[in-house]
Specification:
By secondary structure, the protein is an alpha/beta fold. It is built from 11 helices and 17 strands. Strands 1, 2, 8, 9, 10, 11 and 17 form a 7-stranded mixed sheet that branches. The chain has a 7-stranded mixed sheet with strand order 6-5-13-14-15-12-16, with helices on both faces. α1 crosses α2, α1 packs across α5 and α8 crosses α9. 41% of the residues are buried. The chain binds flavin-adenine dinucleotide (FAD).
Amino acid sequence: MSQHYDLAIIGGGCAGLSLARDLIKRSADQTSLPRTVIIEPRTGYANDRTWCFWSQNIGSERALVKRQWRQWSFSSQGQQHLHEPGEGWSYHCIPAVNFYQHALNLIGPNDRVELRKGDQVKTIEPLDGSFRLQTLNGDIIADKVIDTRPPTTDDHARSTLLQAFIGVEIRSEQALVKSDQVGLMEDMASDEFGFKFNYILPMSSNHILIESTRFCRDRAAIRQLDADLEQALKRYSRGADYQIVRREQGVIPMGLEPAADTLPPNWIRAGSGGGAIRAATGYAFRRIQNWSRQCADQLLEQDRIIAQPAEPALLGLMDQFFLRVIRHHPELAPDFFMALAEKVEPAALVRFLTDQPRLKDMLAVVLALPAWPFIKQLNPARLRNPKLPADHVHRG
Ligand SMILES: Cc1cc2nc3c(=O)[nH]c(=O)nc-3n(C[C@H](O)[C@H](O)[C@H](O)COP(=O)(O)OP(=O)(O)OC[C@H]3O[C@@H](n4cnc5c(N)ncnc54)[C@H](O)[C@@H]3O)c2cc1C
């Protein structure tokens, strides 16, 4: 007979583990916890990514943070802008292993939350007011489903741009960079494959994560990343010997249109496949944490699940507009980001990047950018179909 749960969480990654952790932390006692199963294909957790985000008030995640910085830089063609907004703003970094371990320590001993590693959901179908999940290891029945399976490469076609990156963490005997400053968008440039830059995260002056990044549309651009990284390694190691400690890579869809299908009540998508990725930046970690706390409270107090909150309309529109211009004019992207870094006050820019801009911050962002490429985007046919080329002529 199939096992019956109140809640099935598909995927024990960032969103799935965050929700399980928050349910455990926020429930008054064991009996108020929904009987939960998390289905996760991996059999063990590795340090597979580094989550970074800005915050003025780090709160309960402080214990997971490895480092924080008050300054970050943008550079292109040898010119650099350094931002230090003050007002308590810092850029924080959480190694995935800290996050996974914390969640697993809470989930492991809990009788009402079960993590099934090495399993995988194949199909989900509604069944008498519940759901039947067919998994590699047999069927499961659940009253509610939170589906955190990440976007597939097929889903990437619904995005405006892809943010692709390959990075390595290196250690050297010699100091390589200044340790008190993150290179947020360094060496910005463009080539026939699109817009590119390096992301430099110094754990210390001789221990850094170097990530070569592209905002692009196709696999050909992604294939350039190995060569980009080789160049970046030469540049930042400055001839010193180094040892590669760890690698990470990813392809994040930016401006992902929601899937066309409508899900039945009590089954929602969450995490990167459920609207958590900020279109203009590709950041999702903090948004997932906020959703997870709200969803856990709703489940515990109201016995209902909630999706990622919708993007404020104006911010969503600005992001989409910005991405579309970069999609069609990647050669302008270095100037755009340098203009934002030069002309927008650092605290206003960081509020914009962290989803909490004031109206005057949004205005500052708009005024910093050159108008003409954006006006060209207003071509009515392109607004209906952003995939049309920039020089498409509107008839009728
Ligand atoms: C290398 C990397 C670095 C990133 N760095 C940052 C950052 O610095 N800041 C930031 O804000 N964002 C960052 N992101 C973006 C985002 O925060 C992460 O992708 C985050 O992990 C998304 O969480 P998620 O739960 O949606 O997806 P995941 O963490 O990928 O979890 C999805 C889970 O679903 C599981 N799964 C897949 N198929 C099935 C199936 N059929 N059945 C059951 N389970 C399944 C997967 O195994 C996985 O564990 C980064 C992304 C990557 C890839």
